[in-house]
Design brief:
The protein is an alpha/beta fold and 213 residues long. 56% of the residues lie in helices and 12% in strands. Its main location: cytoplasm.
Length: 213
């Protein structure tokens, strides 16, 4: 039988979950926590097989509790909340939650998600999975656009890859050395590089430069 820890600051919610979960002979309630701080302590003391975690609670939020619990335990955690907010969903899943459910979800969906979490899988409702994929796609697009070098910056980067110094690059391009250094600073910022060598390496990894360049 799988041991369940319920974490929610509302007693009526905890009582409702207990009544629901006790109808399934695969699960048993071993503890309750009214905030994230207590949840972290009980995760250590009780070693539950699965945790149902609310997000907004006093003293310590659910997200912070997930973070602290995951630092010490591999216990599957399912977020069960009233808040249908994208940033909470993204952060919760990235912190290691195995599911994100709204409190008005059906008992069937809850148990399916718990079963999947126990097996080590992440199970998201279709609408939440779709939103998660859309958010991740938009994030990737933004990251790509942020690292997109201008044509003039690529020219400077190609020259750097050939070992040319700023002064020589400026002469070849017919611009000031200050302009070259300004473009180089922009390249560093976009690629997250701290040196010419690192900038060239990152650019090659991202496909901006190739050996033939």
């Amino acid at each position: 039988m799988n041991k369940v820890l319920i974490v929610d600051d509302h007693l009526v919610v905890r009582e409702g979950l207990k009544l629901l979960i006790e109808t399934n002979d695969q699960y048993t309630i071993i503890g309750e926590a009214e905030n994230g701080k207590v949840a972290v302590r009980l995760a250590d003391e009780l070693e539950p097989d699965i945790i149902l975690m609310d997000l907004y609670m006093p003293e310590m939020s659910g997200l912070e509790a997930i973070k602290q619990i995951k630092e010490k335990h591999d216990t599957p955690i399912i977020i069960l909340t009233t808040y249908n907010e994208d940033h909470l969903m993204i952060e919760g899943i990235e912190l290691g939650a195995k599911g994100y459910l709204l409190k008005d979800t059906s008992s069937e969906t809850l148990f399916h998600t718990m079963d999947a979490a126990i097996r080590g899988n992440v199970l998201l409702q279709p609408d939440i999975l779709k939103r998660l994929q859309e958010i991740q796609f938009e994030r990737m697009k933004k990251q790509r656009s942020e690292t997109q070098l201008t044509e003039k910056e690529v020219i400077v980067l190609k020259a750097i890859a050939k070992g040319l110094k700023s002064k020589a690059i400026a002469f070849d391009l017919g611009v000031s050395e200050r302009t070259v250094k300004s473009r180089l600073t922009s390249i560093y910022n976009k690629l997250g590089a701290n040196s010419r060598t690192e900038a060239v390496t990152i650019a090659m990894q991202k496909g901006i430069l190739t050996i033939d360049n």
